[in-house]
Amino acid sequence: MGVVPLKDIVDPAFHARYGVPAINIFNDLTMEAVLAAAEEANSPVILQTSVKTVRSIGSRQLFDMWKSLTAGIQVPVTLHLDHCPDREVLTECLKAGWNSVLFDASSMPVEENQRQTIEVVAEARQYGAQVEGEIEAITGVEDDHGSDDVAPQQSLETVLNFIDATGIDVFAPSIGNAHGSYRAAPVLDLGRVTEIVEARHIPIALHGGSGLSQEQFADLIARGCAKVNISTALKETFMQSSLAFLKQAEQDNKWDPPSLFKHTRGEVMAMVKELTEQFGSAGKGGR
């Protein structure tokens, strides 16, 4: 199937109640490994880039990597810009070819957030792209974005008015989830997902997925979390597997970068394939 709009991935997942891994990559190795794992698992996948990654590599270079690595791919894949409060970066990525964006105006008053999100949706539509929206900050700092302060929840009425007014395609609520590593088992407001889905039938994005239990994932996906974000787990897998390999290389006094890359790629692929099984997206790639 190849590169498709975000809706072509999250809508079927939402209706069939499985989750699609939305994984924040940060270089060519992680991009290639995530795509390769999705093909092996016959699973759709959402590749995400943070603003920090866009700025460090460059939107043109990132998109060229994406275009090259997805040429001929047989499962549905899409490229998403995660948590972007900067309208200039958002426009830059839409022009470059990103399939969807998360406009993160959660630090603004809801009225201003809504006004600007309406503008972002209109802009994205010009490029055939979709928009994820949020009105509450997800706790935690990730790639230099966010805060450890817990943001207050908005009322259900405010959430539904925001969804109706903006025309967003995916909504990301705050339900006690957090970016980064959880210091303790999170207490999640599961019922809030059900309330939103029953009222508006919109796919939900689950942020702060790294560290949730298998039971929590299963419950939230069954309630309508079709897009499941994973960032910290990939970073930890990448760095810890690399560190273990390098320690052994030092002990053996053997320094072979291609072997390091092969080892790390294998660990990343194993992690991604496990996620597709856990979220129920394995085998849903259309092959």
From TrEMBL:
Keyword list, A-Z: Lyase, Metal-binding, Zinc
Zinc among keywords: yes
Cofactor info, note text: Binds 2 Zn(2+) ions per subunit. One is catalytic and the other provides a structural contribution.
Pfam family, one: F_bP_aldolase
Enzyme Commission code: 4.1.2.13
Enzyme class: lyase
GO molecular function: fructose-bisphosphate aldolase activity; zinc ion binding
Gene Ontology biological process terms in this record: carbohydrate metabolic process
PANTHER family per the UniProt record, alphabetical: D-TAGATOSE-1,6-BISPHOSPHATE ALDOLASE, D-TAGATOSE-1,6-BISPHOSPHATE ALDOLASE SUBUNIT GATY-RELATED
Protein name, UniProt field: Fructose-bisphosphate aldolase class II
Source organism: Pseudarthrobacter oxydans
Phylogenetic placement of the source organism: Bacteria, Bacillati, Actinomycetota, Actinomycetes, Micrococcales
